[in-house]
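Troubleshooting log. The previous structure file for this entry was overwritten by mistake, so regenerating from the original sequence record. Sequence copied from the archived sheet and checked twice against the printout by T.R.
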Amino acid sequence: MKTEQLKYETTLSFANEMDLRDPLKGFSDRFYIPKKENGEPGIYFCGNSLGLQPKSAREYIEQEMKTWKTLAVGGHFNGKHPWMHYHELLTVPLATLVGARPSEVVAMNTLTVNIHLAMVSFYRPTAKRNKIVIESGAFPSDQYAVASQALFHGFDPKTTIIELKPRPGENVIRTEDIEELIDREWESIALILLGGINYYTGQAFDMKRITESGQSKGCVVGFDLAHAVGNILLLLHDWNVDFAVWCNYKYLNAGPGSVGGFFVHERHSENFDLPRFAGWWGNDKETRFLMRSEFKPSEGAAGWQHSTASPFQLAALRASLEIFEEAGIGALRDKSKKLTGYLEYLLDNLDGNRISIVTPRDEQQRGCQLSLRIKNDGKNLFKEITSKGVVVDWREPDVIRVAPVPLYNTFNDVFSFIEILRKVLQN
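Regenerated output below.
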């Protein structure tokens, strides 16, 4: 159900009017937008793969370079933003974006590392209850991680991993089918680990319902939020999610390979008897430099940290999070629904039948990404639009992913993309 019945039009004047009325219209100026060969701005619809660079990121990183240059090791405790506490500058902004309490989140490591660390604590298989539920077509790193964890515990991934699949002839997985599987298989399920949004189809799962269903049967429920954080509204604490992990280089614009994110619900994060792999930076900061052999975890999600955090990576993320704080995730989500709805409308008004939309039509079941299935040599179509300055991405065997990001994309971007696509299709 759409929250607002906006009447779209196919004209350029409509796109111009929407951009003029956009309360977030100035935020695109905060980012570097790649240009075409002729120097004109390109159309960047690939924030679901790598977000753009905030213009303030260089200043923030250079500040820490200056601290390193002038204070060296003293930068851990002195300078403008002492490194010992730098990750704490990100705690409240991250907690706001994922709907958590500050103690429940921390910026650390990278996505797949965090999946493994979470599974150390939350995948506790037994001979009777050892199955892991994931969605069919989950991102490969998730598939690798859960398969290797099953093997590590002595189980065969082929029989231990349960893959949720759409019904025949459908593209996405129905929530009621997930609930039915849980009701049927719960006695053997140890962990449910789904993507908040599936990277390929763009489907946003009903995390609240899935969490309630799984936990009512004694299953642990966690999510990979790589394509969800900074994209849709999240309420991890209120939904009672056990844990979640994510990367920050997509919608959160922290740069390639940047530091990741980690959420542990407070009912777990204050359970110091919960198994975990311990590391230096996860030790209580009040006793960390007493150099004791006994590990005393920090309270909350911070107790899962391992190594000294890189201030350079944290600085890049801080630059982006400050922009998110100013824009507000609610306003961003509102624009996202309109922008993606506009893209959907214009695609529906294209002539021809080569393109179909894989992503759910219901705006509550998607973020800003639309996955387009292309008939007849889709790879060549992708190359043609790319040559004209459109940055999207291709996923085998036949999908182009298009993501108009509300923080820096415009209705004019969407209109121009459709016009380019129309001409390529006609040729």
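Residues 12-32+329-426 form a domain with the Aspartate Aminotransferase, domain 1 fold (CATH 3.90.1150.10). Archived copy saved in two places this time.
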